[in-house]
Specification:
alpha/beta; globular; 8-stranded mixed sheet; Polysaccharide biosynthesis protein; Polysaccharide_Synthase-Rel
Length: about 425
């Protein structure tokens, strides 16, 4: 049987951040190891968006169970190159007979033509997403999120419609899709509609699952990764003040998606068994732990000039400047949640993974109508009237509460350190 021991251990910094020495899903993976090996060994798997943090971590987990063919699609060519270097340089062998990476946008003509020439896959795992709250700075960036997170997924359904050998489809979501306050969160909630809505026409008998989960510590584009970059560049760190977040470690993100993607219940969004009392972390505390792992202590300040001008002097004292910023930019929440109002949290056979059955809009025509209007905008129809308010009103026709829950601000994270 596959030895998972090294994959389940967390490093010292992860231990400090998430408060555990091995993966939250360690017991579940041990219990499921034989079933996963039987399911994955010799299979054909397509991973879309596989060069990103969560996709690559899921790939590393899946490769331990010896699939026959793994094709990895990502438009990030450099990310794919680094992924292969990482896999081939690891002490863990790459057990797939055929591992191929391709620099494709999964909605582009090269991908469609290439896909048509491939044999059927057993499993398709989709991690492609625009995922930053900072991307809602203007209507065109929001439209790009809607295109990637929603329309391209609908297009994928057409490619998969006649693939009778496909057993399971998984798409990653986000905790920000629950009672969304940001455009990014709203687009991922719409992604869930595209994934589960009967109006899309996914093939009958195809098991479809998703997952919402916490911040992935040190993942690409994350606040904690920015801290790594700031230390390397000898620049001050920045930290939202009074902000609490759930965290999972990078390996845990792959463990969660493997369980949800290959063993989750059809028609359900899966969430980690984390609770606010035990697992919400204050970001200032995380900054302390992060710096302590680098032999430093934080010097907290709310003055940007003070933070910028004192890096060298503070570093000489074993300190590092951390600029505390108010949580007042567009779409930001002071807390996280996995389950929206009117949704029901249910147990699964996994001890650390719960599920939320998909809840469709009350009006069955709301989402198809939204898609039609979105395509009109993307085709240039009405482009002159494209505004954030216009897109917000379209989203609110599907997600009514978004008209009130969206956090609006004239301030953007692009204006912050």
């Amino acid at each position: 049987m596959t030895d998972l021991s090294s994959a389940l251990r967390l490093n010292a910094l992860d231990c400090r951040i998430v408060g555990r020495a091995e993966s939250l899903f360690a017991d579940d993976l041990r219990a499921e190891a034989a079933a996963l090996e039987e399911q994955i060994r010799g299979s054909r798997i397509l991973v879309i968006g596989g060069a990103g943090s969560i996709g690559s971590q899921t790939l590393k987990t899946i490769l331990r169970f010896a699939p026959k063919t793994v094709h990895v699609i990502d438009h990030n060519e450099n990310g794919l190159a680094e992924l292969v270097r990482d896999l081939r340089s690891s002490p863990e062998p790459v057990l797939a007979e055929n591992l191929l990476t391709l620099p494709f946008d999964y909605a582009g003509a090269p991908f469609r033509l290439w896909f048509a020439a491939q044999e059927d896959y057993d499993y398709v795992l989709n991690f492609a997403a625009l995922k930053h709250v900072r991307s809602e700075k203007d209507p065109y960036s929001i439209l790009a999120m809607l295109d990637t997170n929603v329309l391209k997924l609908v297009g994928l359904s057409q490619l998969l419609a006649d693939r009778g050998g496909l057993k399971r489809l998984f798409c990653v979501s986000t905790d920000k899709a629950a009672n969304p306050s940001s455009m990014m969160g709203a687009t991922k909630r719409l992604m869930e509609h595209a994934l589960f809505s009967p109006a899309i026409g996914w093939r009958q008998g195809l098991a479809i699952t998703s997952a919402r989960f916490a911040n992935v510590a040190l993942s690409n584009g994350s606040l904690l990764q920015s801290w790594q970059h700031r230390l390397a560049a000898r620049q001050p760190m920045a930290c939202p003040e009074g902000c609490r977040r759930f965290f999972v470690a990078l390996p845990e993100s792959g463990h969660l998606c493997t369980l949800a993607g290959l063993g989750g219940e059809d028609g359900n969004i899966h969430v980690p068994a984390l609770n606010p009392d035990d697992h919400l972390q204050l970001l200032e505390d995380v900054a302390v732990w992060f710096l302590e792992e680098h032999g430093l202590v934080p010097f907290f300040t709310r003055d940007e000039d003070e933070a910028l001008s004192n890096v060298d002097a503070l570093a000489a004292q074993g300190k590092w400047p951390v600029l505390l910023t108010p949580l007042d930019t567009a779409g930001e929440k002071p807390y996280e949640e996995f389950v929206a109002k009117n949704e029901t949290l249910m147990e699964t056979r996994f001890s650390k993974l719960h599920r939320v059955p998909y809840l469709a809009p009350g009006d069955p025509e709301a989402f198809p109508t939204f898609l039609a209007r979105l395509r009109e905008i993307g085709g240039g129809s009405g482009a002159q009237r494209l505004t954030v308010d216009h897109l917000k009103s379209l989203i609110a026709e599907v997600e009514e509460d978004f008209a009130h829950s969206h956090v609006v601000s004239t301030k953007s994270l692009d204006q912050r350190m």
